[in-house]
Amino acid sequence: MIPIWKFLSASAAHALAPLGVRFYSDLPSRTSPEWKPFTWKGLSFANRLGVSGGVDKNAETLDCWSRLGFGFAEIGTVTPRPQKPNPGKILDRDWNEKLLWNKMGFPNAGQYDVRARLQTLGPQAVPVFANVGKNRDTAPEKAHEDYAEAARILSPFVDAIVINVSSPNTQGLRSLQSKEMLGTLVTHTRENSNGKPVLVKFSPDESETALRESLDVAAGHGAEGFILTNTTLSRPPDSNWPETGGLSGRFLQERSKAALKVAVRHFQASSSKPLLVSAGGVLTPADVAERLDLGADLVQVYAALVFEGPSFARQTASYFHEKVRTS
Ligand SMILES: Cc1cc2nc3c(=O)[nH]c(=O)nc-3n(C[C@H](O)[C@H](O)[C@H](O)COP(=O)(O)O)c2cc1C
């Protein structure tokens, strides 16, 4: 597929993406292809590849993802009240480096609009996770109320809730990963998730010790899965990117794999293994295979959709079908 969106500005391509996704998903013979099928907590995944948080913030194109070949989808980050993006430039990309920079800050339609959309759409062909966060003007000591509220409103219409404590673009959000805050957050969110499993999405910028501590605290309070990772605040040498904003794509690859390896090792001997979802720098079907080999149960992409386009899930299915055929 020729990436015509390469010739648009990052913001124009972003604005037009939902139209492209819908158009491409309306092409004939569109169901989610089966490869490495997987079941977790009664949820059936036809395959292991999903769209990452932030791609479909308001569930605007939720019905398209299975038709594009994805095995699951994540909506959000959704906050209780609607909010606008951060001021100024919020998105850019480096095509040669396959790198994205964003400083969005959870622009979204708010929990009630997104719930209405989920109600209109009805049940989906693939499992759906809802990623929830706090509004930027909610005080840190009240953050858990925002997460619990968004979980309460959205959980009846989705299959799992994802607690996002790792976006670098909402001031103070990452402090919620600390052991002092995380336990309360997971407990309150679980109490309001209508029995749906709760996952936590972590940053790639924690030390191994801090990440292991966060995994323990979250699991100890009933989190049943983890997404590793969100975007990074680190920068390539001689980088011209602003200090603020998160980087993803190829530059994130090694950090994201390192966090996955820490989590896999951490739970190796545990009797109840949590769901491990790998995100960050997955840019080719071979990258998907590598994450599964490293111990991920599921894999998510954002940058691959930008650089490879909406056929990425079909390319990945062909790759795995070919692997089975030649093995
Ligand atoms: C423009 C943009 C917006 C994002 N918005 C969110 C978000 O709202 N919530 C979230 O949990 N992650 C968000 N992310 C992070 C992605 O879900 C993912 O964790 C990260 O981009 C790494 O994957 P990638 O290398 O495939 O892009 C966003 C990423 C980008 C590039």
Topology:
Elements: H1 10-25, E1 38-40, E2 43-45, E3 49-56, E4 72-78, E5 91-94, E6 99-102, H2 111-121, E7 128-132, H3 143-154, E8 160-164, H4 179-191, E9 198-202, H5 208-220, E10 225-228, E11 246-249, H6 253-266, E12 275-279, H7 285-294, E13 298-301, H8 303-307, H9 312-326
Parallel strand pairs: 3-4, 3-13, 4-7, 7-8, 8-9, 9-10, 10-12, 12-13
Antiparallel strand pairs: 1-2, 5-6, 6-11
The chain binds flavin mononucleotide.
Structural account:
There is one protein chain. With 327 residues, the chain is an alpha/beta fold. It has one domain: Aldolase class I (TIM Barrel, Alpha-Beta Barrel). It is built from nine helices and 13 strands. It has helices at 10-25, 111-121, 143-154, 179-191, 208-220, 253-266, 285-294, 303-307, 312-326; strands at 38-40, 43-45, 49-56, 72-78, 91-94, 99-102, 128-132, 160-164, 198-202, 225-228, 246-249, 275-279, 298-301. An eight-stranded parallel beta barrel has the order 3-4-7-8-9-10-12-13, surrounded by five helices. Strand 8, helix 4 (179-191) and strand 9 form a beta-alpha-beta unit. It is globular. The model has no long low-confidence stretch (mean pLDDT 94). Bound molecules: flavin mononucleotide. Flavin mononucleotide binds next to strand 3, strand 6, strand 11 and helix 8. The site of flavin mononucleotide has 27 residues, from strand 3, strand 6, strand 11 and helix 8.
Q: Summed up, what is this model?
A:
With about 325 residues, this protein is an alpha/beta fold. Helices cover about 35% and strands about 20% of the residues. The protein has helices at about 10-25, 110-120, 145-155, 180-190, 210-220, 255-265, 285-295, 305, 310-325, and strands spanning about 40, 45, 50-55, 70-80, 90-95, 100, 130, 160-165, 200, 225-230, 245-250, 275-280, 300.
